[in-house]
Structure formats: structure tokens, C-alpha cells
Amino acid sequence: MSDQLVAISFTNKGGFRFLLGAVYGHNDRRRRETLWQDIIRLSSLAMHRHLPLLIMGDFNATLYRGEKLGGRPVPDQILSDFQSCLLQSGLRDLERIGHIWTWHNKAVVSRVACQLDRALGNSDWFRLFPSSVAEGLPAGTSDHSPILVRFVESPSWRARPFRYDNSWFLSAGYEETVAGGLGQVAVGTAQFCMVHRLKKTKRAIRDWVRALSRTSLQEKEAELRDLQSELQGDMMSGEMAAREKKLAAEVNTLRLQQEISAAQRAKCSWLKDGDRCTKFFYDVIRARQHRNRIQRLIGRDGRLVTDQVAIQEEAVRFYSELYHQTDYPSVFPQLITKTLITEYGNSLLMAPIRMAEVEAIVMQADASKAPGPDGFSSGFYKRHWGILKVQVLEAVQEFFDTGKLLKELNHTFLTLVPKKEGATSLADFRPIACCNYLYKIITHLMCRRMEDAMQGLVSRNQAAFIKGRSIAEHSLLAHELIREFHKPGGMKACVKLDLRKAYDTVNRDFLCHLMGAMGFSETWVDRVRECITSPTFSVLIHGIPYGFFGSSRGLRQGDPLSPYLFTLVMEYFTCLMDIAVHRKRIVPIYSRVSPVVSHLIYADDLLVLLRPSMRGMRELAAVMEEFGQLSGLRLNRDKSKVYFSNSCTLKEERALELGVEKGDLPVKYLGVPLSVNYAKDRDCQSLVDFAQRRVEGWQAAGLSFGGRIELVRSVISAIALFLLQSIMVPLATIRKIEGICAKFIWHGGIHAISWEQLCRPRKEGGVGLRSLVSVREAAGIKLAWRFLQGDSLWSAWMTSRYLRGRNFWVCEIDNNYSVSFKHILRNRPVLRTAMRRRMREGGETDLWLDPWISGQSLLEILGPQRDGVAYRGLTCKHIIRGGVWRPEEYRFTAPLGEEIRRVRITPTALSDVWIWAPPGRSEGAGEFRFSSCYDLVRPHFDDMEEYDFVWGKGLARKMQLSAYKLVLGRLLTRDRLLRFGVSVPDPKCVLCETDNESIGHLFFQCHVAWSIWAEQSRRHLGGVGRERDFREILKWIGDCRGKEQSWARRARLRLAASVWHVWRERNRRIYEGLSTPLVGILHNIESDVLVMSP
């Protein structure tokens, strides 16, 4: 108990016990530091005693920036203190419902609201009470809302649908069961036969699973422990040793099964090289179930529904009505489109199906993806492709030949994912379609065939789902268009349009009519129509399907084909806008030198830029109305906003003409703050919050050191994608994110290894994480590379806006240039070293100014005094004759002529291009590789001498990382803890209890540890040297030249295993008060080595 935290232990009559912590945080940040320490101690107590823990109350602090509205931003240190507390305690929020803004200042103007009150639980709490929620009640006359924790009744049990488990293959009899089911004889169409065999296989698997032994992992582990205890009394018994080996193999198989099954359900595909993290997987599963659980809904009549049966009925009613078309037109005017698909393009779409196409789709699929109603995921198809491939090919070819889908094949489960915390309206859920994988093979194949056609059909105003187009360039073009928004030059307006239930309301008849107008063959359109009109639906509530209904409108989110079809629908909006601009009904914002950009589209994100005359606003409203009537995509006026330049007058009246509200910049577009100014650190806090939410403390509690590294690697990868959208993310924001990641890796404790060290490649002494600072630099270089390709609307706009006929390589940086273009120009020196010119006809390469000779230009080689400077403006075509260099015609020196002749010419009618060819890499196809770009800009260090010892083949991940810390001298032994200022009760080594503990003593000078290594060497390596230091031992292993290479690998493996087991034994004695006899440690090492050895 303290002045800020009161802990209470509750025990009911049945003996069930849990801990409750009541919090009232101090207003002063420094005084709250004791609260954070008390919470960490209480959670540690609960964890060691395996007790559920609930902590709730007024913390007087927020966890993320988004938890405060109005007033000054929350200081970073306040956020960091609370986040560090949760990181070390492993607590996480209960789902919040009701009044989530639990405090406000009661002011009429200058209002401030915060989420200061919350309820937190540990993993044991969520395991026992997965459906508990924290409900914010009305505040009444107080400035705080009370928090009530509700234990929502779990839905009544009902059998869940069949789902294939990727771990089943490890059990005896599985392969025979599946082979028998898939080998069933069926008569009918190829699709019918395929579905029939899957049904038989499902039934056979269910029977086989029921007949499996129900021996649990815990029972097998207990049996193994008992046998090993018996073995201690008779270590020479061959019979017991054989039984132990058999039991150990069974335990390992059960552990692996549990791991694979949990990983599949958790969908943590990023965790590939970490330790076994089953507890973490189950925590992730529970967190997702908790987040997606629907416990209350606002019904059609506006009343709150909490009864589970009523919730199920409401969901089925809502989605059956949503996908039902009522007043859509079925007769359409003649549609005007800009481009048409060619006859040759249509022939490619309907070309015969090849086995290689289908096999590539299946083999590249993520095996952890959720299955459709038949229960068979892509993992099943991948595992049994040898049996299935002919049957699958026949079913796919049948669809392309007949244009008919078996109804059962296109049944769909709708999984409801909340768009925001505490969602109570079904409009706030995103319906994700879980389609049968056989159907998805068909639509994946259709998508791959449509890819090339889409590039010619879809204007450059759209960037989503089109091969070769980038969200980064789209986002940056939006920034460029907004940059001079408030500068003189007339009134300007930017309209951000939101479409209501975009995918779900598409008029399918219009889509098919539009595809016909675009030139798609009637045969192909019929195939598309069959895919989008034949599905039936059931809604999943808590994993159980309810309802069965058809549909007459909409595209399914989750069907691979839907994004491509939606892009085609949005292309008609471009056609309408272009007509309005051409007829001068809408006047876009443009300059005399830049391409006209009236609008940008990325999926369902629309941005329109125009001169906001009253007529122009009315015409835009008319375009949206016509587009909505035909396509079914209606404007969501509540979420759409118009932003005006400072020079604009009568803003409210102009917004009224359009029918949307007036807003103020900045506004978020494609996840990036869109503003007239350079993005500041405060504008990018959503990115910091994203990183913080991805590495919450409860995740650290369930992950090993290796698992935490892999999670951070996935976070960095996700943020890298964001950075590739905008190079304007401030360095201060990057440093904050790196700090969050580093703190997570070390679980909020001592950072034994610096972030900079961890971000080195393994060969150079790191663990292979990427530095976000270097990622930021590499992203800028990629942007410059994309600019030079010149094949996007963004690069064309930037070229005409800034270069204006000047050569990119000699253009000087002007203060009036945008931040992004300045950054591109500053990257020119790096680009010179990483690119080469692929010379074709030479007509696109400036003879004097482009760096086409080993990264240098002729002007740089010869200098400005050369008479040849007068020939500027000439291209390389002037010194190529018949595909051969003729440098002598321009009186170049003989050495320079030889240098020019070394530049290879590829005779073709295509234009010259820049190819990616960084130093030390073969040119290959010349395609850009971000990995090589990152390698170009990151710091480089000497190779680690002990690389083979640390990262040796076959070595378990946990042993690799302990060896890694040993090599760097960063294991937290007692002498190092004392140097960090941590109090240690006794500095002596717990193994020998004679000398003080240090890294050097613990592993090789301590007689206990030395006995472990010496015994390993004597038994398995043919003797032992006198070396008492691991580097000397490694040198001894390397000096045994007469031995085979495999001997050296085994020796390093045994050394690493010995190090790990010594460190594990040390920790067990200190933290658990347990010890293992020397013979037991040797036995454990031998068991691990047997598993790791080939």
C-alpha cells in the first residue's frame, strides 16, 4: 500500500484468488514515479504466484498522444514513463466501452478531454476473464467518469466450423487419412468432384482427430521428468536411456505441434527465427479475440443490444440489407473511357491455364491465412500439392472454359473487424470476406492476368494496385500540390472525399457495363460477373457462422479480385473529372509549366484540387452525384471535408455549395499529415504511437530475447514502408521510434548492447536489425531513383515544375525547391556510384552532362576549358554509328576513346535507361533493390572473427544469442550489474561460491563450468586443451587442422551449448533457488546437441 496504490487480495468461497490494485495517480510527474515502481512490483508478485491481477483507477497520465483532445500536447516524458511501466509489468488495457473520455475540464470554450482513467490486466487475468471490459459511466457532476469492470457473459457453446490445423502432419496416421479422403471416386464436373473429395477428406480428418491420443504436453513432460529422476539412480541403464530418448522425442513433437498450431492462429508470420514463443502466441490470440469480440451493438431502433442472440440477428439483418441492391439503374448511357484493352490483351486474358501459373500462386501463399467455409487453408493445398494439383488445375480450367462456378465453392464467411476501439455500430466494423481457397486460386489467377492490362487502362491519377505505381510518389505529389496552397495566385481548394461503404455498395451491373466499354471481351466480363454475383454469405460472430443470404451489390473485401475491379470503377470518376475540366466546368489548380492534376485517387481515398468558384463547387457536386448514381458509390458527407487557401473568401458558402464541411490543414492523407509546411515532429506522433502499440509490454512478457528482436524487425519493416511514402519524417521522430524499439528489446531494463551495435549485420557484430536513420536515407535514394525513371505522374510533375529543361545532374539547389526535391538533388553523389547507363540508341543521354562513363560525365572528365563544351546539347547518338562507338569523330583522346568503347551498347529501338548497379553487385536486370541501397548508406564495420561460433549452422536461436552476448562481453554478470549501479546481495559466483562472478570467471575459470566443457571435450572431441578463455578455445578448435570441417562445427556447437547451459544454471540458482547436478547438466547438453546435430 502507498499513497497512490492500494493492493487488495480477494479469495472467494471456492478458493479462487485474484489481486486488485486501486490507483489514484499524483498530479506531479516526479511523484508518479513511485506509482510506476509500485505497479511493476505488484505485477511481478502476481506473475510469480500465477495470480490474475486487475489494476484500475485514475492514473493522471495518458499512454498515447491520441488520448488527449485540446490543450497543450502531452510531454513525451509523461508518455514514456507510463509506457515503460507497462513494458516492464506486462499489463494491458481492458477493452474500453461507454464514455472513453473519462476526464474533461467542464469548460464551454477551450475544452480539454483526456483518457486518464483505465483498467489494466495481466495475462492471467485475460486468460480467466477474456470477455471483461472497462465501461466508462456518465460523470454526473464530477469531472471524472467512473470505471466499471464488467464480466460479460460468454456466448453459449456451439460447435465451431472445421478448420485445418497446420500441425496435424506431425501426428501418426495423418498422411494416410488425407490420401484416403482425396482419393475418393466422384462423378460430375471437375469443381463438383473437387468439392466432394474435400468433404470426404474433412469427414475423415474429423474422425481421425477424435481417435487421436489425448495425452497432453504437460503429462508427457511430467512423465519425462519422472523417468529422468529414476535415471539419476541408474545412469548406466541402457533400457531407461532408450525410453528417455523416445519420451524426449515425443515431448519435442508435442511442443512443435503446439507451437505450429498457436502460430497459425496468432498469424505471427514475422516470427520465423525466434525461440519457441507459444505463450506469446496464445496471448496474441486472446488479445485479438478480446479486441474483436462483439458484446454490445446499437440496434436498428437505436437501442443498445447486449443479448448474444439479438446481436447475431442484428448482424445478419444488417449485412443482408447492406449487400442488397434496391434503386440502382440497370440501363446505362454510353460510357466514355479514354483507353481500350486491345484484342491481343483479351487473348492473353483467356489463354489456356498452365500448371506453372497455378502452382506459383499456391506455393507463394501464406499458410497462416484464415480458411474459407470449407475449412481448408492454403497450408493444406501447399502440403498436399502433389496429390491435389491435377484436380485443382481441372477445376480452374473448367471455370475458364464454362464461366460457371459451383455455388458451394463461392460461399463466404464475413469476419467483422472493428475500425475503432469500443465500436458499437455495425457501420464501424469492416466485413472481411473469408473465401474458399480454391476460389481464391481462380481469382488470384485472374488478377495476375489483369495486371498488364490495368496499366494501360487506368490513368496515372490512380496509384493503388497497379504494378509499378507507388503510394510514396502519390503521397509526395499530394504534398507538392499543397505546398504552395497559401501563396498568392488566386483562390484554391482541396477536397478530401470519403465514400460511404465503398466496396460494399458497388453497382455490379455498372461494373460489368464499364468493363465492356473499356474493351474487355464479353467472355472475360462473364467470368468476372460470375465471380461477383454468385457468392452467398454467413456472418461469423465469435467464430461461429450465422445466417445464409445472397447479395445483389458490392465487392467482397478479402476477394483478391475486388481491388482490381474497384480500381476500374474509380477510373470512371477520372473520366467524369476529365470531361468537366475539358469543358471548363471545373478549373483545376495548375501552373503554366506543370501537368494538370485535378484529382488523385488511391483506392477509396479521393483528393480533388480546384479553383473554388461557386460554379466549380456545384459542378464537382454534380460529378459526385452522377458518379454515385451510376456506380453506387455515394459521398459520405459527414467524413468529407474541403480545405481553402487563405486567399479564399466566403468559405462557408462555397463549402455549402459542395455539401461538405470546411476543415483546416493539416489533414491526414494516406497515413501522412498533409500540410503546407514541412512535417514537424508533433505532426508525426501517429507514427510513434503506431510503433508503441506494436511493441506493448504484454508482448515482451511472452517473448524471449530472440522473439523480441524478431518483433522489432517486423515493426521496423512496417515503418520502413511508411518512410518510403514520405522522406520528410523528422529525424527526432525516427530517434523516438528507435528508442521505443530498443527499450522493448531489453524489456525496459538495462540496455546491455547499444541500438547501434544491434543494427549492424551479423557478419559485422550485430543481429541484423536495420537502423531507421539509414532506412530514411535509403528511402530518399529510392525516391531519387524513381524520379529518374520518369514513368509516373509525380516524376513528370516534378520535372516540369523544377527542372524546366535543365539537366538533372548539374541543376543547382534553389531555396524555392520543396524539401523532397532538395533531398533528391542531395542524393545525386550516391546515385552516381550506384547506377549505370544502359545505352541503346543514345538519343536520351546527354553527351556532356549525364554521368554515363563509370559514373562520370564528359564535362567532369575533360573539364570546362575543353573546346568540346560548345557541343553541349548533343546526345550520345551523335557518336554512335551502326551500334558502334565512334569517339574519334569528336577528336577525343585515345585513352578516353577506349573508356567510351567500354560502355556497352544494346542495339534496340527502346530508350536509354538508368539501371541499378551498386559497387560489388552484379548488374543483373538492373532493377532497384532496397537491400543493396540500404547497404550503400549504412555504416560499415570490420567482420566479427567469432561469426562461425555465434551464428553457426544448426545452433539453436537461444544459444546463438547467448554466444553473441558472450563474444561482446555483454552478459549481465554480477560484476557488470555492480558497474550499472544495481545492488547485488553477493558478488560471488553461485556455481563455485569462491571467486567473484565475471564473464571470464563464470564460463571457463569457475571449476564447475570448466568441468562441463572439459567433460564435453574429453568425451566427444578427443581431448581438452589448457585454454581457459573462449577465444583461446576457438583458436584451439581452428588450429586442429588435421580434423575434418564437420569436427570443428561440432566442437563450436558443443561450446555454444555449454555456454548456454552454464548461463541457464546460474540463473536458475539465483532467481528460482533450484540447482541441477553436474551429470544432469551434461545430460541436458547432450540432449540439445542431438537435436541440433545433422
UniProtKB/TrEMBL annotation:
A single GO molecular function term of this UniProt record: catalytic activity
Query: Transmembrane stretches, by residue range?
Result: none
- Point out the coiled-coil segments of this chain: 210-237
Q: Where is the Reverse transcriptase domain?
A: 398-674
InterPro entries xref list: DNA/RNA_pol_sf, Endo/exonu/phosph_ase_sf, Endo/exonuclease/phosphatase, RT_dom, RVT-Znf
Keywords, comma-separated and alphabetical: Coiled coil
Protein's UniProt name: Reverse transcriptase domain-containing protein
